[in-house]
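#struct-pred
JK: can someone run the complex with DWN? inputs below
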Amino acid sequence: MTEHRCRISGAPLTKVLDFGRQPLGNGFLSPEQFASEYFYPMELGFAEESMMLQLIEQPAPEQMFHEHYAFYSSTSRFMERHFAEFARQVMDSGFLATTDPFVVELGCNDGIMLKNFAQAGMRHLGIEPSRNVAEVANSKGVRTLSEFFTEDLAAQIAKTDGQADAFLAANVMCHIPTIVDVVKGIRALLKPTGVAMFEDPYLGDVIEKTSYDQIYDEHVFLFSALSIQHLFGEQGMELIDLQPQTTHGGSMRYVLAHKGAHPVSERVTRILDRECAMGLDRVATFDEFRKHVERSRSKLIALLADLKTRGKRVAGYGATSKSTTILNYCGIGPDLIEYISDTTPIKQGKFTPGMHIPVKPYEAFTANPPDYAVLFAWNHAEEIMAKEKAYMASGGKWIVHVPKVQVLG
Ligand code: DWN
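RT: done, structure tokens with the ligand placed:
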């Protein structure tokens, strides 16, 4: 039997959760592709030395991030504003050189954040392996390379463009299995006074809210401040600030710099202490998490089965990557959920990975609203509820599974 090792420390991983056979989270497909659909065993492992929760096995990056990548960041107005504010914070941070600063963003997708630097006339570079979204970024005037970021690429960029004042990433770092190489690249690319700022879904929120749908093929890691401190500490860098975010159901923005380059905020100690109190450094914590996940699954299946028995129509709202985990882990197919509506053209007319529920344009939802809508895009609830007042006024109800399975409305 192969022994699976931690991608950070090389220590053996302890298996803490098994989601069974899962397809690609963003692998929306057509009926002629059903027979050859790719599946892999999705299991979570933990290593106490690195304190890093991670997938034991992950599909190859080229299989997930390519010229047909189905997720465009700019589908949410709220996220547009969030990234404009993130960019403003970087520009006002005092970390950028006063003359000719250089900002690099890893996984810039369609340029949702970097366009703010481009519009401000600032020197910038996006690195985005998914060619289709990188093309959109370039078309918006965001200078973007369609490559995977490595220590070698960092050295090349430093040679051609110079070192960076800021290295940014949002919902990207947790996708990269070769993260140690990426951290070495960041260290090489950053000026001695430069900062790395990145945000990702936060393990503390996932545990507190049982939001297990944050676990899918693309998210090879679920970070905590403890694991990030350890990972960067090994490469001579340190956490200088932590800024909790409400995005994606609870994220954390990590601010890192070369060791000793900048003062460390008192928030860092406070959050690290809180994580130790929550047990994010111990394998036993994930056994409790597993029990909560299993309970959540049973409740969701029971609720949908009951609605079916009562002859209610149920649809999904938002064909998220996250929903792939829920649907496949709970075994929910078109018998329980008629269709899922989504505003992303590339997903429409296709079927969800694994369970093959039809994905329909948003207009299908408004034209023939269901009795109940499962809010798979629960992380955008505020924006969606504001938009769907008519659905609720006409008696439409929501099903959410975070922080617990319940019917709203
Ligand atoms: O890390 C990742 C995050 C940032 O984005 C990626 N690995 C992939 C992706 O994950 P996701 O698909 O779970 O992200 P979202 O932002 O929860 O996806 C929302 C989906 O819902 C999109 O397909 C667009 C759709 N949507 C909609 O149909 N109506 C979204 C909104 C706000 C709406 O009103």
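RT: quick notes.
The radius of gyration is 21 Å.
Residues 71, 75-76, 171, 218, 248, 318-322, 342-344, 362, 377, 379-380, 383-384, 387 surround DWN (CB under 6 Å).
JK: thanks, will look after standup
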